[in-house]
């Protein structure tokens, strides 16, 4: 093996190790890697909320109700019936009491391999 | 009782089926009555399918045939036949052999038509594509021979943005939006520019030193949504906002070369599944990378989030001899966590050599790997995904189909491979002729 081939192998193995390590959500990671969540209190988690089919036309009203229930609403997305925001994790279950709320999920984060990686 | 039904005479009931004009069944039935005189007419099926069943003696049959031949509102008459259900003891011996032969013949016909005379699975075993006037991926997917260009189709690529100063995209219709706070859509990472190059790059790259074609839907309208930062990171909030933006803008296709690894046994996100269903119903097909977490052959990891949703098309990667790329995720989890389709992804570091060649960011602010800046050859399900997205744009242009119908076209026309469906789904995406 030439030295170049050794380097390539080592790079490949390192990349694989990176890729096979699952990325699990933590607010620390979010704070470091996601510029769009600056300003979120560390006690809060980022969530996405889906509105059920019957209430899609009332998504703005549901946004208001979520605000009243402690959600810091960041985006209301009418084409797909989703509301993004952040909330104290202890209050998540209470959101299901709001009429029209279908699902509440903690947001996942995503991380590409570094630009120098041969596998993307 | 003979088992050899197909060789026996046609058995009839002695009654006749009479076909009446669509929307004029009442006048038709009156014409039948006047033709046959007194006779038994069962018109119970008439109102739905315009067919009456009548019992006729030879004289009445003659009168009815004359009426069919004449100007009367009666379209046809034929003897009612006795039919048997297929299955059980009725089918055996020669009949079973005949049906199997018929099935094989039909399958061969469909295969030869859908492959346009292409190589069969057996022959593919020895076939290795190499980069030439077009990349190996565009050859393997038959993009090179396609008449279509994605004209009139809007393709959204949700990624690290696009190098808007890249000469290969000069003059293109490009709409952009950043969903990353504090960063504009200009790609300082490279990944997004590579993916947009594959899905929507030009027919004739303007660089005379590097004329190889690498792009598919060269007339598509590009929607570059930045949902991953210049450091390559993002979150669901931005990705969902990007999907909403693409749908609101009428994009027929969303390409997402992104994903988070999940564990065996995990289920899909109900939020993404609901969003993908709503997208399909509005004519937007979401195509996503299966993920690179495997270390084949020993370690096969599940399709990642959000490609594991049933309503998102999950794309696996093939290398240049059309085997599964060693890193490509597989169908490990139930509940929709499966690979749907495969595209050219390359095999970095392993034979066969060719990776996926496409545009890279030329922005001097980007932290670039060594070597020429304008193009780069890399591997991954991130590279396979925009191949499928670009081909989807060709089908959308060729047929006008969107959503689930577009999904079906990609699946129906895929090249079947002699490989497990858990690795490659239905096979390799193929462009329309």
Structure explained in plain terms:
The complex is a heterodimer of chains A (120) and B (433). Chain A starts with a helix and ends in a 9-residue tail after the last strand. Mean pLDDT of chain A is 79; it is low at 13-39. Chain A is built from three helices and five strands. In chain A, strand 2 and strand 3 (82-87) form a beta hairpin. Chain A is globular. Chain A is of the alpha+beta class. In chain B, the strands form three sheets. In chain B, strands 6-7-5-9-10-11-12 form a seven-stranded parallel sheet, with helices on both faces. Chain B has a four-stranded antiparallel sheet with strand order 2-3-1-4. Chain B is elongated. Chain B starts with 11 loop residues before the first strand and ends in a 9-residue tail after the last helix.
For the biggest sheet of chain B, the summary is: 7 strands, parallel
Tell me the β content of chain B.
15-25%
Strand order of the largest sheet of chain B: 6-7-5-9-10-11-12
Which sequence of SSEs, written as H and E, runs from N to C of chain B? EHEHEHEHHHEEHEEHEHEEEEEHHH
Largest sheet of chain A: 4 strands, antiparallel
Q: Uncertain segments of chain A of ≥5 residues (pLDDT<50)?
A: 13-39
Shape verdict of chain B: elongated
Mean pLDDT of chain A: 79
> What is the count of DSSP helices of chain B, taking H or I runs of 4+ residues?
12
Give me the count of strands of chain B: 14
Query: Approximately what portion of the residues of chain A adopt beta-strand conformation?
Result: 15-25%
Percent range for helical residues of chain A? 25-40%
Number of distinct helices of chain A: 3
Global mean pLDDT of chain B: 89
Distance between the termini of chain B: 51 Å
Largest interface, Cβ cutoff 8 Å? A-B, 46 and 61 residues
Q: Can you tell me the residue ranges of chain B where pLDDT is under 50 for at least 5 consecutive residues?
A: 1-7, 116-125
Strand order of the largest sheet of chain A: 2-3-1-4
**Helix percentage range of chain B:** 25-40%
Oligomeric state: heterodimer
- Pattern of helices and strands of chain A: HHEHEEEE
């Amino acid at each position: 093996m030439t030295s170049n081939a050794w380097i390539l192998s080592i790079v490949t193995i390192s990349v694989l190790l990176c890729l096979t390590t699952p990325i699990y959500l933590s607010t620390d990671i979010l704070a470091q890697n996601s510029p769009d969540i600056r300003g979120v209190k560390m006690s809060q988690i980022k969530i996405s909320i889906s509105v059920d089919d019957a209430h899609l036309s009332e998504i703005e009203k549901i946004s208001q109700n979520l605000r009243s229930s402690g959600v810091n609403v960041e985006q209301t997305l009418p084409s797909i019936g989703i509301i993004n925001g952040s909330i104290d994790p202890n209050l998540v279950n209470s959101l299901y009491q709001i009429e029209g709320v279908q699902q509440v999920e903690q947001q996942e984060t995503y991380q590409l391999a570094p630009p120098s990686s041969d596998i993307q | 009782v003979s088992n050899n039904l197909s060789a026996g005479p046609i058995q009839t009931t002695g009654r006749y089926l009479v076909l009446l004009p669509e929307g004029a069944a009442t006048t038709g039935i009156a014409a039948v009555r006047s033709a046959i005189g007194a006779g038994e007419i069962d018109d119970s099926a008439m109102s739905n399918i315009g067919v009456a069943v009548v019992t006729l003696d030879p004289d009445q049959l003659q009168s009815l045939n004359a009426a069919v031949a004449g100007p009367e509102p009666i379209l046809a008459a034929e003897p009612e036949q006795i039919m048997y259900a297929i299955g059980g003891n009725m089918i055996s011996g020669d009949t079973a052999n005949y049906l199997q032969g018929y099935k094989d013949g039909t399958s061969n016909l469909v295969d030869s038509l859908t492959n346009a005379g292409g190589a069969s699975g057996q022959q593919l075993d020895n076939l290795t594509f190499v980069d030439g006037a077009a990349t190996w991926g565009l050859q393997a997917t038959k993009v090179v021979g396609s008449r279509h260009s994605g004209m009139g189709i809007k393709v959204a690529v949700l990624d690290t943005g696009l190098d808007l100063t890249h000469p290969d995209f000069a003059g293109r219709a490009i709409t952009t939006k950043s969903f990353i706070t504090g960063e504009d859509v200009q790609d300082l990472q490279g990944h997004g520019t590579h993916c947009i190059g594959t899905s929507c790059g030009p027919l004739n790259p303007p660089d005379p030193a590097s004329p190889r074609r690498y792009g598919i839907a060269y007339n598509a309208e590009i929607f570059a949504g930045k949902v991953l930062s210049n450091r390559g990171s993002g979150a669901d909030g931005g990705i969902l906002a990007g999907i909403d933006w693409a749908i609101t803008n009428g994009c027929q296709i969303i390409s997402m070369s992104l994903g988070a690894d999940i564990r065996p046994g995990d289920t899909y996100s109900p939020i993404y599944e609901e969003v993908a269903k709503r997208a399909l119903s509005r004519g937007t097909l979401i195509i996503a990378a299966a993920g690179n977490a495997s270390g084949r052959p020993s370690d096969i990891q599940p399709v990642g989030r959000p490609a594991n949703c049933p309503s998102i098309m999950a794309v696996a990667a093939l290398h240049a001899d059309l085997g599964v790329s060693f890193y490509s995720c597989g169908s490990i989890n139930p509940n929709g966590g499966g690979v749907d389709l495969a595209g050219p992804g390359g095999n970095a570091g392993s034979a066969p050599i060719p990776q996926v060649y496409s545009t890279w960011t030329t922005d001097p602010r980007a932290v670039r790997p060594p070597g020429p800046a304008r193009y780069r050859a890399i591997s991954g399900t991130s590279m396979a995904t925009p191949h499928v997205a670009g081909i989807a744009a060709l089908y959308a242009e060729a047929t006008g189909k969107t959503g689930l119908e577009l999904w079906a076209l990609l699946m129906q026309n895929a090249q079947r491979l002699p490989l497990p469906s858990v690795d490659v789904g239905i096979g390799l995406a193929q462009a329309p002729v």
